[in-house]
Amino acid sequence: MSRLSAIVVVLLLLPWASTVTAEADSRHDDTRPGPVLVIGDSLSADYGFERGRGWVSLLAERMREHGHDRAVVNAAISGDTTRSGRARLPRALEEQQPSVVIIQLGGNDGLRGLDLGEAQANLAAMIEVSQAAGAQVLLAGVRLPPNYGRPYIEAFAAMYAELAETHQVALVPRILAGVGEREDLMQPDGIHPTADAQPVILDNLWPALIPLLTHSARE
Known about the structure:
By secondary structure, this protein is of the alpha/beta class. The protein contains 7 helices and 6 strands. It has helices spanning 3-12, 55-65, 82-96, 107-111, 116-132, 150-167, 198-218; strands at 20-21, 36-40, 72-74, 100-104, 136-140, 170-172. Strands 1-3-2-4-5-6 form a 6-stranded mixed beta sheet, sandwiched between helices. Helix 2 (55-65) crosses helix 7 (198-218), helix 3 (82-96) runs parallel beside helix 5 (116-132) and helix 5 runs parallel beside helix 6. The longest helix has 21 residues, at 198-218. 42% of the residues are buried. Residues 1-28 have low confidence and may be disordered.
């Protein structure tokens, strides 16, 4: 089996995880900001290692260390695409009433070679519904492997940049920067980072997230 075929098979067979929260009770009162909602795929769902060691759980700990008194709700599901994420986001927004939404989706669309026009439209809809609900948005992207060809890879990367500029949202173009290039931080499938990589992923996201946390704390 070729490496490309193995990648696709792994993604298609990923288990669908249930929604979990990084804190036992994600409900919030009127005296503190709403939670941070993470809607993503296996890169945010603790895939391949012990639950609770992923970057979302580490985010909850770091926020507490920096005095941000709010929950982190992990609504990531392994194997998720932008289409399914778009379908389930409205309910999550209604239930959680987040102040910040981190959208970490699109990688499975790209790895499956799905139409990028549809993926971009789905992500745009997710950004718009999050903003309409009063949440600030951080868009987190990934880079595709080189065997997908330069035109598709470049169009995929441009999708995130265009969305961030059009909708004026924070962007982390590559959440796996400093991770994907290191075999010691990647699982044997070559797609998913290890538990040891999770602090690096959080460090990639944190600078873009701090202003959103600070701003929403004032509202």
